[in-house]
Amino acid sequence: MGQGCRQQGVELIEGYAMRDHIHMLLMIPPPQYSVANTIGFLKGKSAIRIFREYPQVKRNFTGRHFWARGYCVSTVGLDEQMIRAYIKNQEREERRQEQLRLAGL
Fold first, then answer.
1. Catalytically active residues, by annotation
2. Cα–Cα distance, 97 to 80 (Å, whole number)
3. Are 38 and 28 spatial neighbours (Cβ–Cβ below 8 Å)?
4. How confident is the model at residue 66 (pLDDT cuts 50, 70, 90)?
5. What CA–CA distance (Å, rounded) separates 85 from 88?
6. Alpha-carbon distance 40 to 10, whole Å?
7. How far apart, in Å, are the Cα atoms of 88 and each of 17, 18, 85, 93, 94?
8. Model pTM?
9. According to DSSP H, which parts of 1-105 are helical?
10. Which residues pair with 24 in a beta bridge?
11. Per-residue pLDDT for 75 more than 80?
C-alpha cells in the first residue's frame, strides 16, 4: 500500500492488516483526489501486486473480486491521536481475542 500511496501523493500515517480487512489512516491532499478515487486506486494496485507476488492467491479468486466492493471512511480532526492508537493496538487486540477463543470464553 505504501508504494501506491506515494504514487498518488497520499500519506499513509498508520496501517494494520487484519485477516479480513485493513485499517489505514491516510492523508489525502485536497482537492487533487477524491476519497473514492484514492481507495479504488489503492485496491486495484494492491490486488495486482498481491497476485504478482503470490500467484497461488490468484487461483482462488478466479471470477471473483479480491477486495470487497465497499469501504468505511471517516474524516479525522481532533481524534487523530485516538485513531492512531486504535490502529496500532489492533495486533494486540487480535491476539487477545484469539486467546479468548482458545480458552473457550
1. 86
2. 25
3. yes
4. confident
5. 5
6. 13
7. 11, 12, 5, 10, 11
8. 0.64
9. 2-8, 35-53, 55-59, 80-88, 90-102
10. 15
11. no
Of 63, 87, 91, which Cα lies nearest the Cα of 76?
Answer: 87
pLDDT score recorded for residue 79: 80
3-state secondary structure at position 37:
helix
Q: Which three cell numbers stand for residue 11?
A: 500519506
The cell for 29 is 491532499
d(CA 10, CA 8): 5
Give me the chain's average pLDDT, please. 79
Residue 82 confidence (pLDDT) above 80: yes
Q: How far is CA 51 from CA 6, 23, 48, in A?
A: 20, 21, 5
d(CA 84, CA 13): 8
